[in-house]
Amino acid sequence: MLLLAVAVSAAFSASRPARAQQDFAPDTFEDSVAQQLYTAARASWKTLDESILRYSAVIRQRTAAAIRALFRDRVVYHNETAVRAFWERDHQPVVQVLGTRSEYPGREIAMREGDMDWLDDLPFDEPFDPGSDRLFFGIADIDDEPFEPADDEFWVAHPLGEGADSLYRFRSGDTLTLSFHDGRRLQAIQLDVLAREADASRISGALWIEPETGALVRAVYRLSREFDATRDIPDLRREEERGTLRFIPGLFKPWTFDLTVIAVDYSLWDFKAWLPHSMRIEGKAAAGILKFPVSMDVSYQIESVTLADSEDPDAAVSADQTFEPPLKHVHFKTREEALAFVAELLSEDEGIEYETLIEGRSRPMIAPKERHLVAESPQLPPPIWKDAVGFPSDAELERFINKLADLPAPTVAQAAFGFHWGWARPDLIRYNRVEGPAFGGRLEWALGQRFSLGTSGFFGLADLRPKVRLDLQRSTMLRRLSLGAFHELRATDADGRYLDFGNSANAFLFGRDNGEYYRATGADLTWRPPEGERESFTFRAYAERQRAVGNEIDFALFRAFDGDGTFRPNIEADRVEEAGAELRLSPWWGNDPGGVQLGVDLHGRWAMWRVPGEDPRTDYQQASGTLRAIIPVAGDGWRRWNLGFEAAAGTTWGDAPLQRSWFLGGGSSLRGYSASVLSGPSFARGRVEVSRLFEAGSSILFGDVGWAGDRSDIDRDDILYGVGLGGSLLDGLIRLDFSHGLKGPHKGFRVDLYLDAIL
């Protein structure tokens, strides 16, 4: 969770305001309304809100982080916390812990062995200070001194800060009408914040400003460019240039973080004071092949407020707008004595025995003496993947994202390009029986207006053939469209990841190359989800020439003395010219690691082809579907039993080239048998797993069954099946299977190691 903590902390570091600026750059505002809104908002931002003397609120917070997998996001961390905060001006706030619940690998072990107390990973920091910055929901530490970022810091330029007109442009937008329960209404006007140049230290978004007071009512924004640690932190950039980081495998680089959306919302208390209502953060962290979607929700349930203009400053207004009796003054010798008295009052009021925790802590805290009560509190919110009162719903989140997607793209600096090769990135070195060791490079050039140009190439030391791909891509928050030209090595199963790290490692170490390959030259148009999202849909139209390739190398490290035959032969692909289109839909339902999860993968293709130089053309259609289900049957948390099911079938209508056959065998389809042991124009297969989950991995009992061939000639004797045992570490990232095929001449005992199984 270190990466999550660093990413979120970095995203909320902000520049400090300095002296008031009288003049703005002439092109700062697109209209006069924008200038008026900005001026009012900037004046309000610099004015300390002294209208609130004290308030109390129940603050609920929930967070989750997952590992992005091929079919679903696997939640590896989640926390739900509820606290009551007593905030008073000129005094340190007091926090009453109502409940907290966390799940992540290793936590139970640390708790059981006494290495960690439940408060050690309490994610709540400080309640909102009415005098702090509202755009960052009070999370950033804002003061009145100019901010000069250190070389080891990442910062965000505040759009209301000193010199912001040189970094941003502004325009007015729609009017937001807020309705209150007593029939009164209040209007706020949208102010778009447009970064002049795409930069990870600048935001793009929209602020809703109440024009009379300049108060921020709502804000939706994101970073204008993805944060890259080695590019955007000067110290790390210099380390990279000196070569200090070259020993870190490209498998775990680059280190990036992108904020999809931050949405903050405020409510008006008694038509006198703006107080926080909710905040939502969506982002994606990455360390090379590891992708971590992260989410956080915060909600405030205001219980009472004391305003400076109250007739009696000791009277508090409660949430139902009734006046409570004046506070009784009690004098104490020490702060510890006062907090003990507060804990006693809370114990009497709630029927739970509380104690104060002060020593060794940055802030005083009141918590139940019986620690197990914090994980059972009814005040805890549900996990973040469930809708709950007080938090933005999925529909609201979608509206926020659409709002950001409508904003114009910031200008990209001409020098915004990057080049990487070989060991520097996880997908630029590969090994297979056609190319042998192959080394690649990639050049990416941001063109502006959300367009980018990317080119990549590989050269295999065994086949001595260059491969190259050129893509012109337009990427938004909602989708990616790319037009490409290519001459490349292709695997028959695009989802098998046979040209990625895991299969390359198996091929080099053990001679287990599970892919079937052919060479393709042509062009394509692809439509898919935005960068970093799970590929829940893909549409591709293409025209290409396909050719056969053969084995060019026969070496694997642990089979170096086995003689010839280390690798099985590659298929003799048909030489054809093919044009067609394919569509894949892969929805997934359920993110709760302790609940039922269900996924479907549907794929369809229509294409026509001919032998080069010949006129007769042949068309064919293909369709396949896969159903996956995970069902918990016993236990909870990280110690539970799961049942997993997978069923798949596909067929072909018409005469398709050999490389468009369905291939079964190997870990992804039929364990216990070598890759491509079955193939044909149709297939059906099934899988069942019984898994026992632990904090750091799982043990698995599985069985597979499969058939492939001509559907008009199905023979029961052609059905193969196998059983086995497996184990995984790091929630499935590394997996080892011991399997045995039970039928046919290819049956036997197999050991398979998957170094990127989850991906």
How would you characterize this protein structure?
- Residues 1-21, 142-147 and 321-326 have low confidence and may be disordered.
- The protein is mainly β and 759 residues long.
- The chain has an 18-stranded antiparallel sheet that branches.
- The two termini are 19 Å apart.
- The chain contains 8 helices and 34 strands.
- Among the domains are: 52-129 and 289-388, no CATH class; 412-573, no CATH class; 578-759, membrane protein fhac: a member of the omp85/tpsb transporter family (Porin, Beta Barrel), CATH 2.40.160.
- Rg (CA only): 30 Å
The CATH homologous superfamily of one domain: membrane protein fhac: a member of the omp85/tpsb transporter family
Shape verdict: globular
- The total count of strands amounts to 34
User: How much beta, percentage-wise?
Assistant: 35-45%
Structural class: mainly beta
How is the CATH topology of one domain named? Porin
CATH architecture of one domain: Beta Barrel
Helix residue percentage? 10-25%
Q: Tell me the name of the CATH class of one domain.
A: Mainly Beta
Our measurement of the CA-to-CA distance between the termini, rounded to an integer number of angstroms, reads 19 Å
Largest sheet: 18 strands, antiparallel
- Detail the poorly predicted runs: 1-21, 142-147, 321-326
Query: How many H/I helical runs?
Result: 8
Overall pLDDT level: 84
